[in-house]
Amino acid sequence: MTTTWAPVPAGSGFGVENLPYGVFRPVDGAARVGVRIGDHVLDLAAALGDPVFATPSLNGLLARGRTEWSRVRAEIVALLTDPARETDGAAALHPLTEVTLHLPFEVADYVDFYASEHHATNLGRMFRPDSAALLPNWKHLPVGYHGRAGTVVPSGTPVVRPAGQRKAPSDDAPVFGPSGRLDIETELGFVVGAPTTLGSSIGTGDFAEHVFGVCVVNDWSARDIQAWEYVPLGPFLGKSFATSISPWIVPLEALEAARVVVPTQDPVPLPHLREIEKWGLDIVFEVELNGVQISRPPYAQMYWSPAQMLAHMTSNGASLRTGDLFASGTVSGPERDQRGSLIELTWNGTEPLRLADGSERTFLSDGDVVTISATAPGPNGTRIDLGEVTGRIAPTPS
Ligand code: CA
Fold first, then answer.
1. Number of domains in the chain
2. Of 102, 123, 158, which marks where a domain is finished?
3. What keyword terms does UniProt attach to this protein (predicted)?
4. What is the pLDDT of residues 76-107, one digit of tens each?
């Protein structure tokens, strides 16, 4: 573990190896950019004197690109590891208990993929039991859709149960009302920094030039609304009411020790989706419902890598904007306790979960709290903590 003068509790996943970025507001000032070290946040505007950090968004830093991201990170590491700079640096530290955390960046466009073979297979088996679990395109391209950027909210934002139209196959006609099948989706989000021009595309090898870092995503999903509306154009109101993200963006550089090869892809993808430098990531999530752990989805088993997702989403010449967010799709592993959504954990509501208080859940009840956290291996036996994304379900307004 690299030594720092800053206070880092033993076993913390927020050591000098991590240094995730966020936007915080101290009790006596405006919201601005900081990095987390231990249980403190370092005020970067105060510590480094660069006005790009005196804004309530990471977008200014994101737009600068990879060379500058690396330079800034090295500057922060130098500050935190030089004993001679403790006095100045410590003056820029705020305890997390004394700050409010905000949405870390202005979300430009938001895309959501469907990259877990286990998740796609589980849903295919539930919804199309009489045909192949995976649709014919699934192993040729990372399937995705465009979501609603304006309803991406920071961790802690209450999630109001959406009302919508639904119709079960056995119903004669649709009805409108509060969703009865409100669900979670455990996902990893990728934050785009460096933009591109319209008409250009990005190869799989240029992933790290454009993607700044990652966050934890909960793609709240109303399964009954989704099931009635999604044919033929895909998810719409069953997803767009809220997508929660964690407050800390972990830079790709903190995840070097977590890189693994993605599972073998058969058939071999078309040339524009082939990858030399693999971007599998050994990140493990923990999902808690009302304080009880219900799943531990492993990211390492995802079929499509984020570099392939990025190459695919720009392969038609669509441009990237600073602040674009693309999410992986629900992360599910092969085991029952590795499934990243309630619809899989309860097998479409037929196998309820039993919670610590003796109650059962198929989908979410009003007042339920879901918290998703994630960790990854860091350099030299350390641990990188991605933090958590949490949300409480609020009732549909009457
Ligand atoms: Ca999703």
1. 2
2. 102
3. Calcium, Hydrolase, Magnesium, Metal-binding, Phenylalanine catabolism, Tyrosine catabolism
4. 999 999 999 999 999 999 999 999 999 999 99
